[in-house]
Batch of 2 targets.
Target 1
Amino acid sequence: MSEPSVLQSLRDTLRAIEGNGHRRRAVLPFGAERIDSRLADGGLRLDALHEVAAATPGMGDDASATLFLAGIAARAWGPVLWVVRRRDLFAPGLYQSGLSPDRVLYAEAADDAEVLALMEEGLRHRALGAVIGETRRAAMASTRRLQLAAENGRTIALLLKRHAREGADPLAVPSAAVTRWRVASAPSTPLPSAPYALTGIGRARWDIDLVRQRGGEPFQLLVEACDETGRIALPARMVDRPVAAGGAVARTAAA
Amino acid sequence: MRRAEPSLAPPRPDRVAPGAFKPGWTAIKQRCDAEQGGKQCDAPRNSGWRPGAKWARGSSEAEGATWAGETRRDVARRIAALPAHQRPPMREMGRRSEAADHPYKRLPGDDGTKAGGWPEPAGVPIPSRAAKQHRPGSNDPGAAMKEVAAFLDTGRSTAATVARVRPPDHVPPAPPQDGASPLVTVQKTGSRIEVAAASPAARALGIIPGMALTQVRAATPEVIVRDADPDGDARALRRLAILLARRWTPVVAIADAQSLFLDISGVAHLHGGEHAMARRIVRLLARGGITARIGIADTTGAAWACAHHALPDTDGVALLPGGDTIDAIAPLPAEALRIDARALELLRRLGVETVAEVVAMPRAPLVRRFGAAFVTRIDQASGQVAEPLDPIIPPVAITVEQRFAEPLLTAEPIAYWIGQLVQRLADELAKAGRGARTLVLAAARIDTHVQTIRIGLARATRTPDHLLRLLVRRIDRLDPGFGIEALTLHVQRADPLGAEAFDGDLAEGERPDLAPLVDAIVNRIGTRRLWRARAIDSDVPERSVGGAAPLDPPERAAPSWRRDDVRRLDQRGQDHPWHPRWPRPARLLRRPEPVDNVMAGFPDQPPRRFTWRGVTHRIVRGDGPERITGEWWRRSGERDAIRDYYQVEDEDGRRFWLFRRGDGERAATGDLSWYVHGTFG
């Protein structure tokens, strides 16, 4: 989508005023045109904090958010520190999203404060590609500390916000993150179905929702999950009517 | 100048003391009871009991003991109540008979002695508690009570059971220590396994170093065999040398694999004289389990000769009087001169046995025949050629300290001074060429209370910033009290560290150094909570991930196979254990949770519906089954276990990983229950 040039020049002025003006920021693009064009910097800023939360408290969306982060970390340039609260992260699942085990350091923290402290240690180290942490709540001050720790570096800070209790939206708390995402799992890519049998599962899909970004507009998108290199893709648009999921018998061509 | 030399016999492990068997009487009694299928007779003795007495029946039945006069049915009922492994074998039920011979019964001896092999213990000590009841009864050794015939008479007696449980006492021929078992260490030389060293008990039985192990085992089957560990022995000898160098004499050198040279000139008077000093050293080593012999003489050669070949006195010390040492060691055999085996053999063939004869021979032909080294040895023994010792230098711990005239009370000056100390420590470490692995900061308060902060480092380092950052973080643990008057930094563990390359931010390194990060994290949360994952080649999902140390990345080169190994024919190459062909979830539950209300086509269709944590999911898509069998080599209970894994998706798009135990055809593979194991993204 082409912007009017006035808006573009206004954006450049704003960016210059914001500080670090003319230096090009290092970004990690998603590699999909429709996403990168809608992001303010053309990708995820490498020296900033980004937040991701699952849409619902269930385990399915939680796993989708985890793999979303794993895909981003897989495309980061260096080692990854993943700070966990519980040991339920399954490394083969991460490997199949592109994050190989020799790149990841796992640290188990006892509570949220320790998660944030360890993330800050990783960010200050300046030799990591990405730092991922899982917390339930992070106050504005803590996220601002993380953002400050990430500035001037090349480590992308990713925070996975878990659901504190039923019904409480983890993204309701204000935060200093540059982008805030919400990820939900969506029905996978439809495969041709055989009659009276369950179809197989195609490539998984996610409903990702950029709730807030600094310097840009929110948007929602249905994407296909990461492949083995950690890249997400955009679903091909069906020209014809999409095949109904489940056991609808397709009219044969003879009809 | 006097030199002393202790010679060490190979250390004997103290923990192996099979001669000192302390019988656990309750354990033996329980085993006897279990083997005999209950107490043979627990009737109160000599108290007028007769079989079938009504007043006795009630109490003994409550204990489950056997008593004569029971009916067959009673006994059968009681047998059925026992667990299967305790029931007596079939042969014994139904009639009173001998027990079946166990398959490993010993054959009768060659000289016609009875089979059995376990000697009746002549002096089985009777516990004092039973001393009061020392009346003849059926449980005592050697007793044969005919009127009380328990139904389950297995033909064994307590005495035989005790003898079996307790290893037979050895009467060694004439060892220095009573009851010690012969112990040998073995090493593999060429194609046979030889005895490297033998304990005194073994040597008394005729086992000498150099014998083949098979020969030893054939002659004395009860010998205890351990692997020789020459590296460990060398390290232990070095540690011993450092210990002696710290406390007894400054010059300690390692002579050979079993001997140390100590130069005690000028030191002996501090320990009460030469003989007293040597005696104390022998006793010190004996407390540590090492048998030592010390030889004291004027020259190194003579001291070596005395220690190895002279007869020591009762304290283990052979002291040579001052003066002409060659005359003093004249009666010793020629090996005492430390000459090589070839020369020794030649000397023996020439008929030269003792040092006196060697010395009496003219020198020039000796040089021509044996070489100059031979003659040097003689000169070293007589003192005409000096033999300088190469002493072991005990490592010195690196410490820096700062004392204060004004005691420190607040955190800023403490942090400042820690910074200064760390700088000085880095300089000291650089001078010594080492890097610190464990540091301890000791803060001494005015009231003499010392507080410590300890930090550990994953890699040896002497970077001041890194150490300072780790220390400063812990400052709030210090409580200054009335003031800290001294700060000391001790290096508890240091590893050698050469000059470090300066890269800093200049190089875009291929592999960034994670050691400082690991240190920082480990010093905050501990080593057990920082790890890397490692792929383990196992199909069972919860076993396919292992932990690895954080710093060394788990790249292990594939082991190279021999040239004729059949695996070389496989050109395909190995798949990664986590290959994407077998999809794995992102989150795995610690324990698979059972799901209810499952409706699935049988035997290989994914389920159409299941209920988990109260929510019913209707499945619209599914993949599977992936059949994972149990690993029988790990647990025998898994030999037949099968799990069929299905990846399913419900109508909202949530993807789960379910499995069903069992393949549906054989019941042994599982009970067809369904579980959820993880969720996919």
Note: Chain B touches chain A through 58 residues (CB under 8 Å).
Target 2
Amino acid sequence: MDRRRFIKVVGFCSLFVHGWLRELLAAQGPMVSVAQGANHAETTRRAIAALGGMQRFVKPGQTVVVKPNIGWDRAPEYAATSNPIVVRTVVEECLKSGAKKVKVFDRTCNDPRRCYRNSGIEAALKGMPNVEVKHLEEERYRKVFLNGRALKECELYGEALSADVYINLPVAKHHSLSGLTLGMKNVMGIMGGNRGSIHKHINQALADVNAVFKSHLTIIDATRILTAHGPQGGSLADVRVLNKIIASTDIVAADAYATTLFGLKPSDIAVTRTAYRRGLGEMNLEKMRIVHA
Amino acid sequence: MKKITSARVSQLFFLALFLVSFLMTEYRGSDRIAAAVNGFFRANPLTAASTMLAAREYVPLLLPGLLMLVLALFPGRFFCGWICPLGTILDLATGKIRKVGPLRALQGNLKYWLLLPLLAAALFQVNLAGVLDPIALLLRALTFFFHPLLGETVRGGWKSLYGMIGDRRDLLDPGYHLLRDYLLPFRETLYPLAFLSALLFFLILFLERYERRSWCRRLCPLGTLLGLVSRLGPLRRVPAKLCPDCRGCRELCPTSFDQELLQTEECILCMECASNCPSKRARFSFRFRNYRLSQGAMMERRVLLGGLLSGFVVARTFRFRDPEQQALLLRPPGVRSEKEFLKKCVRCGECMKLCLRSALYPAFLQAGVEGIYTPMLMPRLGYCEYNCTLCGQVCPTGAIPDLAASAKQREVIGKAVLDKNHCIPFAKRTDCIVCEEHCPIPQKAIRSETVELIGFDGSRVRVKQPYVVDELCNGCGICENVCPLEGKGGIRICALKDRTPLREPSDTPPVATIT
């Protein structure tokens, strides 16, 4: 067999083994840790420990960005924003692992001063050394070339881009357009420009952004979830207390698992489906290693 | 620098108080405003008188203003010489301005021609006093021009510093945050009428060219009102005339001694003459026994009648309103009737300074000529924040009522109306729903229905199309604000005459009060 022929055969074979090859490579499957408990700080620590502890992600001297959802002017119990205790615990874990600086921010929808305050997140982190809770400054956005299907380029927040570790910390809630808003959509908080206009093709757009900008760790706050009238809620009747924290390095897997908390299948959510098809992560629950911490 | 007198100390204290309370008229993390500049308006006799005349009722918030008017009976225009921040600024600046001598056109009765029409117009329920009120003039110049200019300049420098040194700028963060948190406006807002507001301020400063305190003695309607009252009072300067052997008061007096006789109603009680009299003759004393009305020129009857008549003319000739602009004229939350609002709004600009989403802007002609400088909500620039109640808290007259958040949330500003020719899911047949996402009403005043359509590329598409539930919409304007369409939004807030508040949400029954 000459070289030319060999290449042809291998190339031809690869058409058939494509799926199999994928299975082989994904044989391990992403790990998703799920912790439950009314003590949210302790529950968060368990979920992180099950993945190997924060020291697996944060090395001494590194700069970490923790990106909760601070989008709305709502009190924590309304489940429109990330649980301040969970945010505080994640930040504490980062510091324990030797982080030089932890930055916490979000691009809010309501007035940023009110959101930072009434979400309880500003107060929860107040006075912690080496922790910054800052309002965004428009000069820090940088144009990033995505070459995606929906977005050719977009503006992302400089401090998120320059951080050594990016921890995505969304709250699990209903969303009027995308069904649910979880980890993939939480990344919109570092996007600049006219974010509303990406709603036209939100599934592909979110996949475009998440394909280029990777979250090193996704921790989904499901201590309480918003089941209707999201993403803003406002009525406690729409809130369910689950006391759960989901963590994974695979953002799609974390989102997929969190979807089941709403009684839905991962494939029901177009954002998750699109991301899976584009190879950003695992969506099939049976292919994940789900660890109940 | 002049000698430090108690009048000067008081002036500087009140100027500092004014500036500090101006800066405190801002959201600083508390739902209640601790102190605002509204005290200066509540204690302002001109706005108090004009508002109560226009509203034809006693407005308790303005009691200090009435007291101040009564007080003017005793120490006269001490407000002008001891408190008024605009007067203080003029006193501080006047040394730097060379004088060319009094302007004839300003002398005489001009001040009555300003004051009387303003008060007479109030009798016909048009509250115009704020347009020329000195405190309001100063506050508007600060709010619409100087403060945004300061913010823009500092922030511009801060931004370009980032361009130069990048993230190393973080080292300077603490210093900048101090500035940002206490001195600069939170948002960079450009206001309409910034030019006019600045122009009026500089014009007043320009008048100092002609004589000291030119505005105060020749034009200011507040000073004129206080002066009218002070004539009736028992406080007299002794001697009333210049002493033939000295005549030094002519030079010392900032306002009223350029004639032989002291003009009581122009005297601002700065006490310069009394404290500098070489022979210790000049003094101020109360004369209760054998009291006589103080002497000096008073307006003639024709000025009084003419002034009152022109007030009537002013009140009745500027009432035209363009209906197209009326359809989009939105007032701050809690204002249920345009007519009642115009009676009480003194156009001080505080609500516009404070609005934390920069939703409120001064009207130019949108509310008719008579509505100039009144606040209006422009949703494309800013929306009314659902949980915020600040504008009602600072309004000095209660034109915007001070409501609890739960009550304010039910007050109707207008109603959202979809424009299907623009709205993306209708016009482009693709998803959007940003308006529904942002609608703050817990049960959602904007909802969507999923419809199956043939897209413009020929494929079948499922699209979520929004619709508005009128019974729930309070017109806060966030939908219009966030609509991703550039130019004309696909949804906009239209004004309503009937602004009956929304009903209490059904899922939170009213709590029974225990008596």
Note: The mean pLDDT of chain A is 92.
